[in-house]
Specification:
Length: about 700
Amino acid sequence: MSARYEQHGDVAVVTLDNPPVNGLGYATRVEFAAGIERAAADASVRAIVVTGAGKAFSGGADIKEFGSPKAIAEPNLLSLIALVESCSKPVIAAVHSVCMGGGLELSLGCHYRVAAPGTKVALPEVKIGLVPGAGGTQRLPRALGVEPALNMIVTGEPVNAELLAQVPGQKLFDQIIADDLLAGAISFARAKADAHADGSPLPRVRDLKARHAEPDAYFQFARNTAKAMAKNFPAPARCVDCVEQSMKMKFDDGMAYERAAFISLMMTPECKALRHAFFAERATSKIADVPEDTPKRAVNKLAVIGAGTMGGGIAMNFLNAGIPVVMLEMKQDALDRGVATIRKNYESQVKKGKLKADKYEQRMSLLSTTLNYADLGDADMVIEAVFEDMGVKKAVFEQLDAVMKPGAILASNTSTLDVNQIASFTKRPEDVIGTHFFSPANVMKLLEVVRGAATAKDVLATVMALGKKIKKTCVVSGVCDGFIGNRMIEQYSRQAGFLLEEGCTPAQIDKAVEKFGFAMGPFRMGDLAGNDVGWYIRKRRYVEKPNLRYSKTADLLCEMGRFGQKTGAGWYDYKPGKRDAIPSAQVEQMVADYRRDLGVAPRKISDEEIVQRLVFSLVNEAARILEEGIASKASDIDMVYLTGYGFPLHRGGPMCYADTVGLFNVVQAMKRFAKNPLDDGEFWQPAPLLARLVAEGKSFN
Ligand code: NAD
């Protein structure tokens, strides 16, 4: 049963009932249409209320059907809307909780709409690269007014129904019903049946006029704004076009215009990338051998070891979610510094109006500090964020093993160390897991959840759920040096070094990558994060790989003391207190000297080659990560790069991008790069999985 039919005296109630959000899937549409037809045919029925069961009126299209023939099978959404709109009896939409996308479009086909306060109303299609596809761009401006409608359509953001009901002249909501929505809707329906008993025509949104006092100036402004704010995405500007046509065209022509825009956007790589990201995000929590109903451990109190850069940011995530945190350090002054930084972060949020002062105090009141491990006994979970040194981690985990209560989860924020070895320092390796936050930990969305060989399933399930609670995108990674994200970035950095050696400047490489859409190129990124971090890691890592070819320019840079913004100089020069990257003559000289020592004659390298070499470096390593099972699906790797590394969203992540380019073409490019006389033949060996997919004509996703 996915739509219910009931009769309350002379009013029929048709209820969408397709949990969780009454998605308008095929079966629901069939039963809903049958309900409307039955009510229309029943002489004892004078009016019809349509509503939704449970937690929504309707969230719109059923995402499970996306892209399948069922999504458009008749009766499709347009047919349902036509059915209610042309019904000879008044149809009243009683909306509550969630009224979005196709759900809102369906309600706009009804003759009247009543809403419960707090109903979130939205047309979110733009977020997956589309315009609304069932009349939203034509009916909402007519019902609500051009400007508020366009704001909703172009941002996709939800607005509360009672706010919309206050828009002057609006005809979106006829009434806000504060208490019993259904009872209120039924009496409203009865009143309308009486009012139209004389045969007076039922109001239809399509018959209203969308108006604006200065349409040309307004739409020009709106189009410019949409283009500036979403420069890599075509959909927002198309939303503006469609809404403009709601004023200029006859209703049916406007509908055809919207449909054409919808279909042409559907084919764009940007829309494909956004839809991919939408599903990839949801898929991250699906772990083959850990079902969603795996029992979880309660985490009501957290301990954090280390109040440095990461410890403080990690603590803030939990304070924000209302979970008490106790923070442990070796010395009081380190604790004081850590707490002061947390305060400073919150205070700047208060100053910017992003956090209320009382919330700030409330969060700080959840934070306590200690120098004594004995004070951690009542915490349900601990996250260690001390120095990146196995000896220090060992000392910390041995102490945690001694004091933490049985069943407590012991997590490490290590970026590069072996989580299995860390687990072996305890007598409870099944309770040990990696939680790799990204800096700044209170801001960055990505959390790599590192599953050790012994990690218990309920520990993994608990940490994934907890990650969701603190609003992170959690991606499971197996244990390897660098996990998913940093292991890939190592190859990207190596390749950036080779490009430098062969003739590029840091600025040329950064600009090419930024034009492709990355938030920041590799050298500006290095200067921001601190070039010494990679230097330290290379010293440890490359001892074991003495024959590995890499450009020593980054080491030479650090030997010059140029660690980045924090030392006022890195790959670029910086003016005191400023973050603008200024090309550095000193660095260019260092690189030129290095080239000369290598005997390399610099050549001009195109932006296209730069981008391909960098992005395909990521892709090739990702294929190895996938084959080794470090990542369980290609889309997880995309989420790591979209949420943790500033990979351009409109390209959908490295794997999605490689699929779009075509894996055959990716491998062809790699073969071309391998012919470079400076290449040693190692770097561009296609990963076995990549080669196999090409041979089988397949893609990653
Ligand atoms: P940090 O140097 O800023 O802070 C480490 C803190 O740990 C210091 O305040 C130090 O006093 C404290 N500490 C050291 N030994 C301790 C011990 N035995 N007991 C209690 N406290 C101790 O370092 P960070 O950048 O916050 O990094 C912490 C961890 O997070 C490392 O494992 C690092 O690899 C990882 N990490 C760092 C980043 C980053 O960008 N900084 C990103 C992801 C992960």
